[in-house]
Amino acid sequence: MSQKAVVLLSGGLDSTTVLAMAKDQGYETYALSFRYGQRHAVELEAARRVALAAGVQRHVVCDIDLRVFGGSALTAELDVPKHDATDELAEDEIPITYVPARNTVFLSFALAYAEVVGSTDIFIGVSALDYSGYPDCRPEYIAAYEQMANLATRAGVEGQHLRIHTPLIELTKAQTVEVGTRLGVDYSLTSSCYDPDADGRPCGHCDSCLLRLKGFAEAGMEDPLSYQESGA
Predict the structure, then answer these.
(1) What does pTM read for this prediction?
(2) What's the pLDDT tens digit per position in 193-214?
(3) Residues 105-120: pLDDT tens digits?
(4) Residue 28's beta-bridge partner residues?
(5) Which DSSP string corresponds to the chain?
(6) 46-96 pLDDT tens trace
(7) 67, 79, 153, 69: which is closest to 109 by C-alpha?
(8) In sequence order, which residues have a C-beta less than 8 Å from that of residue 4 and are 6 or more positions away?
């Protein structure tokens, strides 16, 4: 009987790759997405497409409203920063697209979901390389959260060791694209942009778009998405 895994699925490149990796490892997958007050619904539509294509056991979309706190360009009336190249991205500061405590909130919901479905494995697509400087994407954060999870849940107390899987943590975007491609991921189903247009087309200039485009370019592949300026 297959082990069960909860996979945090945003509909973006990283989480879609992680879902494919979990399935490749033989897990029965349960996808978890969030309607958290983000600027657009494009990524949730992408998550639904990805979950359907992957044949997950169940896909849950949780409603939580992080707009009540604000503090991020993704949940408040703040402009999403745009750049022309990845070398313009600041490496020594946390960008305004960081959503306060988002991964901590998401992982907490994933813990609850995992206990209900009888899973001790949670997959999340964080990376310490080729990322925007978010503090909740670092290995030390994940290690600390996993330790807390095993103290804070019934499953952990009863000796069922809960594990937070981060298979992309040491991969560049290019390596992630290569892994996903080998596993047959259809990246045309995904959405990574922080500020897509009304038709869902990515802007090509936000941090997420630039890192995605850089990954495909370094992997020697073409991003299948159609960008607003028709450059990719």
Answers:
(1) 0.92
(2) 999 998 999 999 998 999 999 9
(3) 999 999 999 999 999 9
(4) 4
(5) -PPEEEEE--SSHHHHHHHHHHHHTTPEEEEEEEE-S-S-SHHHHHHHHHHHHHT-SEEEEEE--GGGT--STTTSS-PPP--SSGGGS-SSS--TTPPTTHHHHHHHHHHHHHHHHT--EEE----SSSS---GGGSHHHHHHHHHHHHHHSHHHHTT---EEE-TTTT--HHHHHHHHHHTT--GGG----SS--TT----S-SHHHHHHHHHHHHTT----SPPTTS--
(6) 999 999 999 999 999 999 998 888 888 877 778 777 776 666 565 657 777
(7) 153
(8) 27, 28, 29, 30, 57, 114, 117, 118, 119, 121
Query: Any idea how long the chain is?
Result: 232
Tokens of 87: 């070398």
